[in-house]
Amino acid sequence: MSSIEEFRIDIPQSEVDDLRARLAATRWPAELPGVGWSYGIPTSYVRELAEYWRTGFDWPAQERALNEIPQFVTEIDGQRLHFAHVRSTVPDATPLVLVHGWPFADFRAVIDPLTDPVAHGGTERDAFHLVIPTLPGFGFSGPTGVPGAAATERSAVLIAELMARLGYEKYGAQGGDAGSFVAPELGRIAPERVLGVHLNDPITIPAWDDDGSGYSAADREKLAALQDWSSSDTSGYAGIHATRPQTLAPAITDSPAGLLAWTLDVVHTYMDPAHELPDQAIDRDAMLTAISVLWFTATAGSSLLLYRESESWGAALAASGVPTGVAVFPSGKAVVRGIAEKQHTVVRWTEFDRGGHFAPMETPDLLVQDLRSFFGGLRAGVA
């Protein structure tokens, strides 16, 4: 299918009923008293959210809201690719591709401010045409069918072809988490097409022999934390994703409570540290909508594969020469500027005093602000 076809979400009521039945039948484990989050996500918190997911969460309403966004599917090199395509009413708006990470693929809170800036405190010069692909292995792009298809490098190739297929000669790219690998890779493979790359809390993985020479004192402190990260109590999830994703897949594909616990424990690790609980940092319904998409599409397991298959994570990456802006939030304590500047052509560096790793959902206002400033500066030649 080289054509582009319109797409609408249509989850049968029987599947919604099945989700609720599985949540009701969950076998909950015993929980030690007084340990808080030190043993992982508290079962009491998971139970509370699972009960809300079962009895209070309105999937049909969320499905209707999602379907208000123009969505499409196409096939590129044998891989189905689902994407949203929201054009601004401003004809010469800047095309921008937004690339998600794991586990959430939700940019809803930034769509209107970016496409209709005049209605949200901006000017017509701040307008963007948005392309929001769902990465292979996630959601309505469906599971991947061959080894390597979930790699972030491969996703960049598919997205570059998608942008060409949509007729965009020049465009910007934005990404966080896994998207902070995909977006810069677009600049490496198509530097003549990518106007600029914007990253939020980019993942900076040090080389094994990086001794921090030339880094600031703050960067050396962050580097030490990163080098100790693999033995820390927060790294276990990534180790499983990168080495045994298929072992975990049945648990989070068959048990909605298991999927909920696994994803929200990671959210707790990387959300704005000013908050205590994930649903204080991110709207509860927004979180459950994103998790429900993984559930209904049975792609929770395949969404892990990019950790196993991506080759650029930890590799020595060359800067593309494409101007790059970086937004760092309080959650990004391990974002080492020295490493980022080796791997990207950084022309703008912004540190915010609130927000977390999931910026499009936690602090969409700050992300919109920084995107406007970064690309506005590129257009003016002063980024």
Describe the structure in your own words:
Helices cover 42% and strands 14% of the residues. The protein is α/β, with parallel strands linked by helices and 383 residues long. Strands 1-2-3-5-4-6-7-8-9 form a nine-stranded mixed sheet, with helices on both faces. β2 and β3 form a beta hairpin. α2 crosses α10 (256-270), α5 packs across α6 and α9 packs across α10 (256-270). The two termini are 40 Å apart. The model has no long low-confidence stretch (mean pLDDT 93).
Q: Can you give me a brief rundown of this structure?
A:
This protein has helices at 13-24, 43-55, 59-67, 108-115, 152-165, 179-189, 217-227, 236-243, 245-254, 256-270, 278-281, 284-296, 305-309, 337-343, 359-362, 364-380, and strands at 5-7, 71-76, 79-86, 94-99, 128-133, 171-176, 194-200, 323-328, 345-351. The chain has 383 residues and is an alpha/beta fold. α4 packs parallel to α16.
Q: Could you list some keywords that capture this structure?
A:
383 residues, alpha/beta, 14% strand
Shape: globular
Q: Tell me the number of strands.
A: 9
Q: Which sequence of SSEs, written as H and E, runs from N to C?
A: EHHHEEEHEHEHEHHHHHHHEHEHH
As laid out across the biggest beta sheet, the strand order is 1-2-3-5-4-6-7-8-9
- Proportion of helical residues: 40-55%
Low-confidence stretches: none
The N- and C-terminal alpha carbons lie at a distance of 40 Å
What proportion of the residues form beta strands (DSSP E)?
Answer: 5-15%
Number of helices: 16
Largest sheet: 9 strands, mixed
Structural class based on helices, strands and sheet pairing: alpha/beta
